[in-house]
Amino acid sequence: MAIRTFQYRLYPTKTQEQALQVLLDVSRNVYNMALEERKLAWEHEKKRIDKREGYLLAKQYKKTFIQAKIVHSHVLQVAIEDLDRAFKAFFRRVKNGETPGYPRFKSYRRWDSIGFKQYGNGFSIDGRRLKVSGVGRMRMRWHRKYLGDIKTCRIIRKAEKWVVNLVCETADPLPLPPTGRVVGIDMGINALITTSEGEQVHNPRWYGEAQAELRRKQRTFQRAQMGSHQRKKKLLDVQRGHHHVKNQRKDFFDKLVYKLIHTYDVIVIENLKIANMVKNRHLCKSILDAGWGYFKRRLLDKAADAGREVILVDPAYTSKCCSNCGAIFEGLTLAQRWVVCECGLSLDRDHNAALNILKRAGRVREPERCEQSQAWFRSPHL
Ligand SMILES: [Zn+2]
Q1: Is the distance from CB of 115 to CB of 153 less than 8 angstroms?
Q2: Catalytic residue among 82, 186, 197, 265
Q3: Structure pTM?
């Protein structure tokens, strides 16, 4: 069995939105209260409070506060579990010798989701609507069918819009039929990706436009007077802009990964340490924006589902040596887009790197380039 999440847009009425806000507020208070308890217990008695005690705390809270009475107990338990996860992550990172921040108290702005633990207990699908305890039957947009059985859900506020994530248990996906093709992929800044077959995918056109638009929104937000109604509005504008760019990027990479998975049996990519590269100021923005981290994660996930193989290879010297004879190009700068070797090789720099990446995986020689490969990736954005 596999776990899959399906996201749908929700359209609550004004009253339902207020009810959702109550759920958010109450669960946030429980989270903050439990955090306070844990903190004090540790500071004063060197005692560790665990999840069980957190549940009891939530129960007490529910009894004490009138507002909390209508809130389903699972909503509060999920908040306690969120806190538990925050602490676990904190301790794990401390153990690894990192310097994480202590779990924070959540303000209104830092708390935007509530969860339910069991289908039919607090939430269910009623006709075409989502029925939620304490809120009622909310209108929902069914842009696709979910698969399998719904287990849990999470309702999220995203820049004043509401969505629900239905977490489902589904049958394992079927592997794709083999294509007999192997590819090496160079991830770069000039072209987003270059394959060992010489195909390139560039940064989509909307990318620069969206950046400029975001900067403009950011500026008007910063100019607005502190605490004013306008400032609130502008902030929402900025948040929406960020969500929009995020969705565009997600859509773009999802399609790219889909295409790669359907075209190749084995995909070889560089094992880039993205956390390290972000420290390099010049490369930073393009790398973060290009969403390589997302691309890699998505590729690995989808490949596993489809029965495809992804091989991660050491990225050192992939662009600096000849893919034909292995000679090292001395003094190659980032500005040089074309490489020429004494052995007769004359190639685009990134194409050469992609061939090296493929070679490094030690798999079959690159197969004959077939005619179909000319149009292996076409996007309306390009
Ligand atoms: Zn050579």
Answers
A1: yes
A2: 186
A3: 0.78
